[in-house]
From TrEMBL:
The keyword Transferase applies. It comes from the Bacteria. GO terms for molecular function: glycosyltransferase activity. This is Glycosyltransferase family 4 protein. SUPFAM superfamilies: UDP-Glycosyltransferase/glycogen phosphorylase. Keywords: Glycosyltransferase, Transferase.
């Protein structure tokens, strides 16, 4: 099948949405489809390709469409994407960009829309409603059961059969099958966090942990959000790696002894919206692929994937003493750490790899 994957992602960039679309396009192409990813052009280093930036095979094409600044930027971008599709002639549209899908509806091509949050304003709501009413609309893909329920409550035109839940995913290649054995038992355990530093993502927990439990060595990988603030405040207690190329992140995660996933009850995005109720954190699945013990916030969307004491330790995001206790428990019980690491990795293999996700949406196409 000839698939045009319509995104508004900047490629390459440090945003999680760019990782998602690159990984999904590679997975769809690996399933035998002819895939072209549409997005906005970022900046690549000399002698570097976009595909290598993300550690994916160059088994799909990429087309850049210019996005103009201003209030009409998204509208003009969507129109530009639709114009390009007249020459590409795909047999199916798979879109995360509702503006592009809206302007492409006139081409008479079947389409699937993927959403990672509810529309944040009435214009976006109206735009999505028009998509759902279009005769070429086939399915809505969402990233959590909570988001599916929210869409059913928000849009009366949607039925349960119209929505498929496909959580985020991660690669499984070059990943060990079990938890790493510590060579130097006297050294501090390395506790790592990988992700953005926007309010609610978890730096609040890491800051308190670094002060309350200094017996561990804390690492933070990522620079989006309040990087300068946190580095200035915690530079003597936390090692900040800054932004790391996506292709290099898996190896770095495997260098840590424990991985933290501490989102709060309210999580801000770069645009300022709250995604805590509906998120399916990309880093959760990348943590699972690293075969390292995970300590995560005990939130409903996290419990859709991780099981307490089976694949992770789940802790109330506000209970800093609970987080300290979880770190001590993993430190004192290597058998539990190994069991959870193995179970998380096997769960990823079985249900949450990018290839599994591609297979989940492909029958719907």
């Amino acid at each position: 099948m000839k698939i045009a994957y319509l995104s508004s992602s900047t490629l390459p960039s440090t945003q999680a949405n760019s990782v998602h679309v690159m990984k999904m396009c590679s997975a769809l192409a690996s399933e035998g489809h002819n895939v072209t990813l549409v997005g906005q052009q970022g900046h690549t280093k000399k002698n570097s390709s976009i595909w290598s930036n993300y550690g994916v095979n160059s088994n799909f094409g990429i087309k850049f469409v210019k996005r103009f600044a201003g209030k009409l930027g998204s509208v003009l971008y969507g129109a530009g994407v639709a114009w390009y599709l007249t020459s590409l002639k795909p047999t199916l549209l798979y879109g995360r960009c509702p503006h592009s899908l809206f302007f492409s509806c006139g081409l008479g091509i079947s389409f699937i829309y993927e959403a990672h949050s509810l529309p944040g304003n009435q214009f976006r709501y109206g735009l999505e409603r028009l998509l759902f009413l279009n005769p070429n609309f086939k399915r809505l893909i969402v990233i959590s059961n909570a988001l599916k329920q929210a869409y059913l409550e928000k849009f009366s035109v949607l039925k349960g059969k119209d929505i498929v839940v496909a959580h985020d995913g991660a690669d499984v290649s070059n990943v060990p099958g079990g938890c790493r054995t510590r060579n130097n038992k006297s050294a501090k355990l390395k506790v790592g966090y990988v992700g953005s530093l926007y309010p609610g993502k978890g730096m609040e927990v890491i800051a308190r942990l670094a002060r309350t439990a200094p017996e561990y060595e804390y690492h933070v990988v990522g620079a989006n959000g309040l990087f300068d603030k946190w580095r200035q405040e915690l530079e003597e207690r936390v090692i900040f790696h800054g932004q790391v190329q996506a292709a290099l992140v898996p190896e770095l995660m495997q260098s840590f002894d424990i991985l933290l996933l501490p989102p709060q009850n309210k999580v801000e995005t770069a645009q300022g919206g709250d995604i805590a109720r509906f998120m399916s954190p990309l880093k959760m699945f990348e943590y699972m692929s690293a075969s390292r013990p995970i300590v995560a916030s005990d939130l409903p969307v996290i419990r859709e994937v991780l099981v307490h004491e089976h694949s992770a330790l789940l802790v109330d995001p506000r209970d800093i003493l609970g987080w300290c206790a979880a770190l001590r428990r993993i430190s004192d019980d290597p058998l539990l750490a190994e069991k959870m690491s193995k179970n998380a990795y096997e769960t990823l293999l079985r249900s949450y790899s990018w290839r599994v996700r591609a297979k989940l949406v492909i029958p719907l196409l």
